[in-house]
Amino acid sequence: MESTSLQDHPVFLVDDERQNLTLLRMWVEKLWKLPVVEFDNPQECLDNLHREPSLIILDIMMPKIDGMEVLRQVRERYPHIPVVMLSAQNNIQVALDAIHIGAYDYLQKPVDRDRLEVVTRNAIRSFELAMELRTTRQRLEEGKLFSSIVSIDPKMKSVFELVRKSANSHVSILIQGESGTGKDLIATALHQLSHRRDKPFIIVNCAAIPSELLESELFGHEKGSFTGADTQKMGRFEAADGGTLFLDEIGTMEFKLQAKVLRAIQQKEFSRVGGLRPIHVEVRIISATNSDLQQMVKDGTFREDLYYRLATFPISIPPLRDRKDDIVLLAEHFLERSIDREQKDIRGFTKEAIIAMTQYNWPGNVRELQSVIERAIILADDHIIGVQNLPEAISAQARKFDATDSLFQLQSANDLLPFELFKKSIIKKAFELCDRNISEVAQRLNISRTTVYRLLEGEDTEGL
Ligand SMILES: Nc1ncnc2c1ncn2[C@@H]1O[C@H](COP(=O)(O)OP(=O)(O)OP(=O)(O)O)[C@@H](O)[C@H]1O
Ligand SMILES: [Mg+2]
Fold first, then answer.
1. 73-80: long-range contacts at Cβ-Cβ below 8 A with a sequence spacing of 24 or more?
2. 8 Å CB contact between 267 and 259
């Protein structure tokens, strides 16, 4: 989230006359206690716009670039930054023209201190409002995005934190995680949360494209450059210009092509297959893999230089079996999503089914869980999904888990509880059965001690 503290947004003063700058600086500093940056060369002001000043006070008559041109560029690139023009007395018409093209206000030279105070107060306030609006918009956008990514696991919370922090930067991001853990979802979130969200998000699945075609897919080709290339074609790098290029399953890319990709990323330049003309692009690279790229580097099958280029900012998604609390949450999420489509009235899972799913190790992660639920919905005869509706490999877990009988004593498959209540009741029972020994509860249910404590909240755990 970007900061809205005004201290991070200095006031820019731009005038070719040094004395004017000195006086204005003194006044502005005194009035608003804000950092002030002076420029006697307007080009330098333009080069520093990325610092997002809260206000620019800009002289109109300057020798190299005139104030009107600077104003135009600010309006185009940073329309939320207010610009106050300084005009000489015989120049009022120009000042009015400036307001017409978007200046916030103007000050007549010699500047009157009281008028300066009023004009700059309003201008800075308008900048603050624009920043607040932007933050609110970003929060809304984030909320929408993250609500489609279901998780309560603290490890996933840290993943979201990394996504939030890195989304707006230019660095390359490598998302690592087993198959089906949600790498595509995270890549999409990174693009959507970045300022590139209105620019293209181009996905290239390196594993799905035959390796002899991947080069032309990425870089495009000229007509006649190889058999079958009967028209000129634009590549995915070019299509992604200004936006994000998502190289999925990067671990499957051939060694030879890796060198070309590295060059394209480093030099922001490449040529089409069969072409000579260099093409410049500005793309943000996100890549994903379910292979251990570091091991591949050691084995000599993945280029070390490309690895470091791609993994400037690595994000690892933990497998589903390492975030047990997410299993049930996701199962309920997929159930809710699918029952409407299937037009069935299914209200939840039996305790046994929940235990079986929690104990299973989910090699196909979230994708596997999703298809297990979709299949179970079709199979279920009742209003509830039971172990008999789950694949054998999963339902076997309920039987294997010997604590099931002793700890939970299932009375009827139909006593369905909201999940949180259900967990609390399990923990309470386990707590008594384990002689109020928290470590044993944690160990036998394969959950953390912190979770046990949380679920026992309100119970008498004093002195444990
Ligand atoms: N936390 C989550 N919340 C909701 N849905 C999720 C979550 N994680 C994954 N999914 C869903 O699970 C499926 C698999 O996710 P995704 O395609 O992002 O995985 P992946 O890591 O890219 O898999 P692969 O390695 O096979 O490409 C998708 O349908 C996705 O929407
Ligand atoms: Mg994927």
1. 73/46, 73/49, 74/46, 74/49, 75/101, 75/102, 77/49, 78/49, 78/52, 80/127, 80/130, 80/131, 80/134
2. no
Q: Which atom of ligand 1 is nearest to the CA of 181?
A: 21
pTM to 2 decimals?
0.65
Q: Is the dihedral of CA 266, 267, 272, 275 positive or negative?
A: negative
Domains of the chain and CATH, by start: 6-134 (3.40.50.2300), 149-318 (3.40.50.300), 321-416 (1.10.8.60)
Amino acid 404: pLDDT = 42
Digit-coded pLDDT (tens) for 316-339? 999 999 998 889 889 988 998 888
- Note residues around ion ligand 2 (Cβ under 5 angstroms): 183-184
pLDDT at 463 over 70: no
Distance from residue 347's CA to the centre of ligand 1 (Å): 24
Condensed to tens digits (0 to 9), the pLDDT of residues 75-122 reads 988 999 999 999 887 778 888 899 999 999 999 988 999 999 999 999
Binding site membership of 203 for ligand 1 (Cβ less than 6 Å): no
The answer to whether residue 411 scores a pLDDT higher than 50 is: no
409 pLDDT more than 70: no
